[in-house]
Structure formats: C-alpha cells, structure tokens
Specification:
The chain is of the alpha+beta class. It has a domain at 427-495: Archaeosine Trna-guanine Transglycosylase, Chain: A, domain 4 (Roll). Helices cover 28% and strands 26% of the residues. The chain has 15 helices and 26 strands. Helix 5 links the parallel strand 5 and strand 6. Helix 7 crosses helix 8 (245-254). The longest helix has 20 residues, at 205-224.
C-alpha cells in the first residue's frame, strides 16, 4: 500500500473516494496535523475552571463543537500532559472522535456496563465518568501489558466503580447480563492515518480474514451478554466496510437485534448500504461514519444496536462481598471496621461520606469500590470453588489501604488523591514551596505537632500524596518516579 508522499495523494485511502462525499476536505484533513484534545474529569473539576488554570500556564484552548467536556489545545508552552493538572487527574488526553462510542452507549449511574475491549482505558474512564462512578463497569482485555496501561489511567483519574478482568472477550462467561455493552473492536486503524503520519499497514487477505472474524465474534458475544432491551455499541477506528457495515450486516441477519439511530449533535456521514458488489441492510444508514474533517480529529465507524427479545435483568449479579474469594469474611469485616474508624477519627471523614463507599479486602490491601454489585460469583460456577473459563479478576475500584503491621493501616496515594476533599482532621499538612522541594528531593522536615504515621501532603490547597512521620521526621512517600516527574512539572511551571 502506498504511503503519503510516494505519489499517492490519498496515502492509501483512495479506495474510499466513491463513498466520501467531501473528498477534498477529507484529503486536506488527513494530511494536516491532528490537534491535541482533552476530556475534562468532571468528577474533579468543571470545564471552565480547568480551562482557566491551563490558560494561566500559557495554553490557548478552544471548545470542541458538540462535545461539551472536551477542549482543544490550540497552542501552549509544552505538552499539556506535562502539567500539574494532568498529574492530578483533572483531565485525560484523548482524541475528540474517541468520545463518540461512549456517548452513543449513554450509560447512566447504576447501569451494569461492559467494555469488552477496554485497554488502554480512555473509553472505560469516559464510561465511568458518565456513570458518576456508580454501578458496575466491567473492563475486559486479554493482554496483561495493556491492562497495566488501563489501570494506570483508571487510577490516575480516580474511578472507583471499574472491575478489571483479564480475559478474551469472546470467551467471557455468561449468566450475568449487562444493560449496555461497548465493543470497540481491534481493526486496521485507518482512522489513525493522521497520527501515523500517513503510514498504513498493507491490507492482506490473511489479516482481513482474521480481524473480521475477531470483530464478528466479539460483537456476537456482546449481544449474548446483553439483557433483553439492552444496548450494544460496535465501533472501530477504520473506514473499511469489510470491518464495519459487513460485520454488522451479518450479525443483523441472525441475532435478535435491531439498529437504532444515534442521537448526538455531531457532524457525520451515514453508514453504507452498498460496497462494490455487496449490498447491506437499508437500516445500516443509521450507523455513523466520522471522517477527520467532521471533528478535526481521527476517523471511525459506529453502530448502536438494541437487543429485541422480551424480559428483564437476570439474577446473575450479587452484592460485592467484604472479602475477595478465598479471604476470611470475618477478618475482612473487622479490618474494614478499623479502616472506617481511622477515616472518621483521624482523617476527618463524616458518616455520610463513608456510607457511599464499599470495601473489599484482598490479601494485604483494602480496596474501595462504588460498583455495588459484581458478576464474579456467577462466573465462578454454582459451587463457587473455581472460575469457569479463562478469566481473572485483576482489581476492583482503587487500592485504598495497605496493612502496615501491628494492626495499622496506611492509606495509598491514589486513595488520598481521589478523596482529598474529604480529608481533614489531624493527618493533614500544608506545605510551602521550599518544604515541598525538600520533600521531593528526599529530605525530611520537622513534624511539629503532627502525629506519627501517615500524613496527607497539601500544596496550595491541593493534595499531592502521602507523607510519613517517623523517627527521622516528616518524609514524602510519593513514589520516587512520580516525585521526580512532579518536581519537574512544578519547576517548569514556575511553582
């Protein structure tokens, strides 16, 4: 396949000239740099306050039409990811076009939601945001390395309702059905033409057979896991009808689903009803094709389907227990009681804040979660003795506390950051610039009247992480690689 700059002005996309009505605009957009866009973490900050903070850093920003939680970075002194606001999880750098599948799925708080191809987690985090972190969001991916990237995004953004599962989405157990399922399927990624500087891999027959088979299997599994009346969104970041309309067309022919219109106020083109000699169902016009000129972003395809058969939710969900399978429930309840007492008595949490949180003990850690329910008991089988199929629970929510010996519990940095507005009491220390610099360089400070043990470290009203008061004084316990990055960010921004 020819690349940009090798005599092919379409850079290998010429096969779509007959279906893209704005061909000149399509070419121009594909051969221009793609702007950086970011999605605001609404649970932490509003769009206007974040924009004001970034403008103070020297960034020029604009809104993205049709996407109220997104900002486009027009210009700036450096990468917007090298800011304190990014480090604190106040936004996520994400292509504007990647907002559309989550918005089309439209989850609500309390829904049971499945992201069947979740890593690296941008859409998972967006779904959690739309759910207000309330209700179970199961994020599935088979590759451990990609799951680590997903968890890094989820933890930085402070989402507490995500159950991360290592599994092949085609083999995820049944028995617990979902209200909404997202299938953002692996694909040939032609929509990333701009980001790949006009270089696209060759479209071989073997790859096409493999990827379309994978896409169709994932979509069929998603439908089988969706409750009657529930919603499935199928999306790719490619233009290829073989991976888009053709896949959906085959599924429509023999699965109990129908295509629904997508109600978003965003420019797009309709799905195709023919491609070469192929003919697709007329309702495929309800699908969306989004080209680079529509949002000044990448390209994609998506279709929204509703499962038709009658019925309601099944009984495959259970309340998240206090102890992970294999842990002692009584010991877990006692430990959770100690954690809640610690939060009330020493960290300033009130009863109402604690009532909204769920807890689970797993080995040395106590995890905080707001999923409320999970499908794990059903997936493990009727006797609960062993998992059915090849899947593994990686984590649920955020790691909140770690056993420190002698019955003591140490809060994690991610827990303190997530709930910083609730932290008060005696375990809080406001730092000035000099004190913060010393701590980040590994020095200690005089503790004053601070009690021994963990301390929440604040700088200009913002919680940065955990410190510890011991024999040598107050020291930072922000991990060294994070402390190094934080110090560089603060130095670069003159803070």
């Amino acid at each position: 396949m020819a690349e940009a700059g090798t005599g092919d002005p379409a850079g290998g996309l010429a096969r779509y000239r007959g279906v893209v009505s704005e061909w000149s605009a399509f070419l121009e957009a594909n051969h221009s740099p793609e702007p950086v866009t970011l999605r605001v973490r609404r649970g932490f900050i509003g769009v206007d306050p974040l924009a004001a903070r970034l403008r103070e850093r020297g960034f020029r920003l604009e809104g993205v039409p049709g996407l109220e939680d997104y900002l486009q970075v027009v210009d700036g002194p450096a990468s917007v990811a090298q800011t304190l606001e990014h480090w604190l999880g106040l936004f996520h750098v994400q292509q504007a076009v990647m907002a559309l599948p989550s918005l089309a799925l439209a989850p609500e708080p309390g829904d049971r939601v499945l992201d069947l191809c979740a890593a690296p987690g941008g859409k998972t985090a967006h779904l959690a945001e739309l759910m207000d972190d309330q209700g179970p969001l199961v994020a599935v991916d088979p590759k451990e390395k990609r799951l680590r990237g997903l968890m890094g995004n989820i933890f930085r953004l402070g989402h507490t309702n995500v159950l991360v599962v290592a599994a092949d989405g085609r083999e995820l157990p049944g028995g617990a059905s979902f209200d909404r399922v997202l299938v953002d399927a692996p694909c040939s990624a032609e929509g990333n033409f701009r980001r790949q500087e006009g270089r696209l891999p060759a479209r071989t027959a073997d790859f096409q057979r493999y990827v379309t088979g994978l896409q169709e299997a994932l979509l069929r599994r998603a439908i089988h896991l969706t409750r009657p009346g529930g919603t499935v969104v199928y999306s790719t970041c490619t233009y290829a009808p073989e991976e888009n309309e053709a896949v959906v067309n085959r599924v429509l022919a023999d699965e109990p689903v129908e295509l629904e219109p997508i109600a978003l106020a965003v420019p797009h083109a309709p799905g195709l009803t023919r491609w070469g000699d192929e003919r697709y169902a007329p309702e495929l016009r309800r699908a969306w094709r989004v080209y680079p000129q529509h949002l000044d972003s990448g390209g994609m395809f998506m279709a929204r389907l509703r499962r038709l058969d009658n019925g309601g939710r099944d009984s495959g969900w259970s309340v998240v227990p206090p102890a992970f399978p294999g842990e002692d429930p009584e010991e877990a309840r006692e430990r959770i009681g100690r954690v809640e007492a610690l939060l009330r008595n020493e960290y300033g949490f009130d009863a109402r804040q604690l009532e909204s949180l769920g807890w689970m003990v797993r080995k040395k850690n106590v995890w905080v979660q707001t999923a409320g329910r999970w499908p794990v008991e059903t997936w493990r089988g009727p006797d609960g003795a062993a998992p059915r199929g090849h899947w593994r629970v990686v984590c649920l929510g955020l790691r909140a506390f770690r056993a420190a010996g002698g019955g003591k519990e140490t809060p994690t940095n991610q827990f303190l950051n997530r709930f910083q507005e609730a932290v008060g009491g005696q375990r809080r220390r406001e730092l000035d610039s000099r004190e913060l610099a010393r701590l980040l360089e590994g020095e200690s400070l005089e503790p004053g009247d601070l009690p021994a043990g963990p301390i929440a470290l604040y700088y200009r009203g913002t919680l940065l992480g955990r410190g510890m008061v011991g024999r040598s004084g107050l020291r930072s316990e922000i991990p060294s690689h994070q402390a190094e990055r934080l110090g560089a960010i603060l130095e670069a921004t003159g803070r």
